[in-house]
Design goal:
two-stranded antiparallel ribbon; 2 strands; 13 helices; mainly alpha; homodimer; 2 domains; elongated; Arc Repressor Mutant, subunit A; DNA-binding
Chain lengths: ~250, ~250
Amino acid sequence: MDETGARTGAQGGAQQAGAGAGRSRGTVTQRAIERIKAMIGQGLLEPGQRLPTERDLAAELGISRSSMREAIRALTVMGVLEARHGSGIYVTRLEAGDLLETFGVVADLSRGPRLVELLEVRRVLESTAAALAAARITPDRLAEVERHLTAMNATDDPEEILAHDLAFHREIAAAAGNDTMAAILEGLSSRTFRARVRRGCQEEGAFARTRREHAAIHRALAARDPDAARAAAAAHVAEVEEWLRGQAGG
Amino acid sequence: MDETGARTGAQGGAQQAGAGAGRSRGTVTQRAIERIKAMIGQGLLEPGQRLPTERDLAAELGISRSSMREAIRALTVMGVLEARHGSGIYVTRLEAGDLLETFGVVADLSRGPRLVELLEVRRVLESTAAALAAARITPDRLAEVERHLTAMNATDDPEEILAHDLAFHREIAAAAGNDTMAAILEGLSSRTFRARVRRGCQEEGAFARTRREHAAIHRALAARDPDAARAAAAAHVAEVEEWLRGQAGG
DNA sequence: GCGCCACAGTGGTCGGACCACCTCCGTGGT
DNA sequence: ACCACGGAGGTGGTCCGACCACTGTGGCGC
């Protein structure tokens, strides 16, 4: 639409002129990200709502589709947007689970001393969640916890054990009634993370102990005893923590 | 290198054929993200190390530069990679602060009941951090805490108060000796988040109370009393939590 | 009335071009 | 011999235009 040569000064020239306090900082993509994020923050974009097309969005912000796509991709991995092929781009429900999905990569990529820190955080949150769950858990959810506990003890398949182990803790976290906390714990217990820890831990015959600890947590929940549940959960995580501390140099 | 017409079946044809268990799931960009993440996870890419150029990377994975750029952008916002214009792409130090930077958007985008959940998490972590800090804090760091405390009380400028408030809590979190926990708290106390809460809270004359609570936390730290520090920090956050609970429908 | 298919719209991918920026090294001076 | 300057090459950042794969919906035929 405009002369091709004008593109040279597009970023520095045309944009900066219009604003005294305008922030032309960073890349255009970065600005697009902030812009969309702001739209959602201001309530202009409701959860679940569909956005204009990439092409329209790009035109609206005066950037190319490539840059806009990068911005959308960024917001997608953040769990803010969701792109459905052939349909459109939508705002997620913006619930804790959506936004904290990336949290798992932290656990996956952390190493050495960081793992201990991660477990320390998990110990604090997991024990709190257990205490809350002890006070609030419903009978049928408690039954579900019990189901995973027995299923975990009934099989030898490490894969299946891990799955039930995860479900066991997930159910407790959900019962605590704080979705945000549950989502963080979910990330802290990401599959590859647990698998990595368990691989070594399990070999040292520490398996029976894990079974006992899980049973203790379940007992506390059944007895609706928050303090006992907190202590049991803390001890459970602390065990792994202690093992890891000795393992990876602490 | 290959016939242009072959592009048609590139995604569905060539890839899926070669693998029984191979995961050709999702978009090429998604695969590229997983691939690079895996490289880092396996230690092939060390923190701080420089990656090949976008062009080489794209060629290596057999995708276009556009797609590779989207993958890089995604990993950039996750805090895993860092792109320096004109220089290259580097792996971050992969420290807690880098990886948990996105955590702030959760606080910024959360609304209603979620904010209470967020504060509940913060209360748990903040009180734990305070307790740890009480046991570990060094004299000069304690002096720094004190400095922010007095500076916060010495001015009327809301902007400056907020800055010192943030620094006050940040210093305590850092003194706890758990960078991961500190990084999470940093996100939970993101600037826009605090500003949003304070705006309303401050008006109701709850300012003097905040001052007292901060003083109580500082006293507990100076006395090296973990229990008192934990209680004071929990009470401090609980105040805001309570106010918010009544505000946004609880 | 029901099911099927063609069509238009959308995100996904690609290749190439150019710009802004950084890095490094060679040149020139002192 | 040393340092300051400057250009060349390489890198990420941006843009464009095209095409593919998928989805949704409408109309057509049965």
